Fold this sequence. Notes:
Largest sheet: 5 strands, mixed
CATH class: Alpha Beta
Mean pLDDT: 78
Distance between the termini: 37 Å
Structural class: mainly beta
Order of helices and strands: EEHEEEEE
Amino acid sequence: MKIKIQGLGRPRLENEVNPDDKIPDLKKKIEDVLGADDFPVGTQILVNRGQYLMCERSTLRELNVVEDGKIGVFSAPKMRISMPKQVWACAAGSSSPAPVTPVISSVV
């Protein structure tokens, strides 16, 4: 399926992904498309329809990424992240992320 990838300060690009890809697979594709200098895999923060894509065991299908969906990509060194600790891990015994409301604020 095709999705649109929007990096901070970058034009939106289309990329082909498999619904059964996991977050590390998507991050590698994003690094290849947007460049390892600005968006290395280890610093990427992905957002889909207002939800952080943090659970690395989940597939894109499980995280509700759909055909023609838009994925926002931020690089951690350029952003300060303030969110509850449980958002960084999947809910116990589930492949879905824990339901939380994270907050992003820019570093000035």
